[in-house]
User: Fold this.
Amino acid sequence: MGKRDCRLLVERKTFERTKIANTQITKKSKIPANTFKDPYIFDFFDLKNAYPEKDIETAILRDLESFILELGKGFSFIERQKRMIIDDIDYHLDLLFYHRKLKRLVAIELKIGKFLAKYEGQMKLYLKWLNRYERQPDENQPIGLILCAGDSREQIELLEMDKDGIMVAEYWTELPPKKELEEKIRYLLIEARERLEARKLLEQN
Assistant:
């Protein structure tokens, strides 16, 4: 990795955002540590304040290289709007990736607004289908990432979705000024540590 790449990772607080995502992962999680980040920064999309999910998908395809770099090393793009027929009903997964190092499919769903509990059931359905019909014999079980413009961390914690291989992360379409970014990341890290400590106390009781 070159100096420019290292500088970019530092500026975008990649290490800190990975630490925040890791607090969703428990001992029984199907998601390996350091796979995802939270939040994701998609400032390269040049999106306005209000936009439909279709516009985000179009922007992702237009800036696919930048999107994959933000996801992390090892990701390879497979398909957009992956069609799945379940009980004679057509479903479409927003984005399907493959992670070479983890040897598994990664399903990604894009959502406008805050996380809703119903998204968990939808992603579970997609992962089961992928596991049955798309997973190769030498691959590990698929995992999923739900990207929301906002999330409810307490609700996500209660649902314990990581046990089913599902992670939820917020996304930002603008990179705030350096000082503001540092403050936001610091706050998220404090919040994440508090959740981790509360989880440990519950496990001990």
In short: The first strand starts at residue 40 and ends at 41. The mean pLDDT is 88.
